[in-house]
Amino acid sequence: MFIVKMAIPELKSLRVNRLDFESKQVIGKGHFGDVELVVEKHTKDIFAMKVLKKDNLLNHRDIAFYEYERDIMASSSSPFLTQLHYAFQDFQNLYLVMDYHPGGDFANLIDKFNGTLPEESAKFYIAELLLAVKHLHTMGFAHRDIKPENMMLDRVGHLKLIDFGSSAKLNRDGKICVCMPVGTSEYLAPEVLIVNIYYVFI
Fold first, then answer.
1. What is the model's pTM?
2. 145 is a catalytic site residue
3. Is position 41 annotated in a ligand binding site?
4. How confident is the model at residue 120 (pLDDT cuts 50, 70, 90)?
5. Counting beta carbons within 10 angstroms of the beta carbon of residue 48, is it exposed (0 to 12), middle (13 to 18) or buried (19 or more)?
6. Domains, the chain, ranges and CATH?
């Protein structure tokens, strides 16, 4: 028993925690917290770290969204979904340490082309997005907030879908049922906005 008690502090010290990362700047802000550009001190690897304030996770549904996001990134094998590297917590926050994509988001790419991508580029990125969404559906989830700001570009220009905090689990019939619209209003389908309860078939 004495040996076990002695080992517990040592094991805790080996856990990944906030002090293992140096924050460089805030690169995104969301409803529940911020996303920071961080450097892992030991390896010098660069990551994006989402910091979610526990006080903002008001109910079990909010916590479920966090768990969905964590599980999707941790379990995905798709090259078009952002990968999770670490997940941990302290008294104030939950942390998700994931891939950092230096190419910026798709909205910025569209702006560089004055709002219209060349046709071949559009085909290329639509194909990668479809592969990302298909893989997510095979995992049993619907994203529900696909928009240019949630489509990042990696260092070689491939698309990476991010931000699974609005995702929902599909039922056995491959559909979801919700009582209110979820996602960004500018990108919601009209039929989602005009009904109180809607089903989505995948």
1. 0.83
2. yes
3. no
4. very high
5. buried
6. 1-99 (3.30.200.20), 104-199 (1.10.510.10)
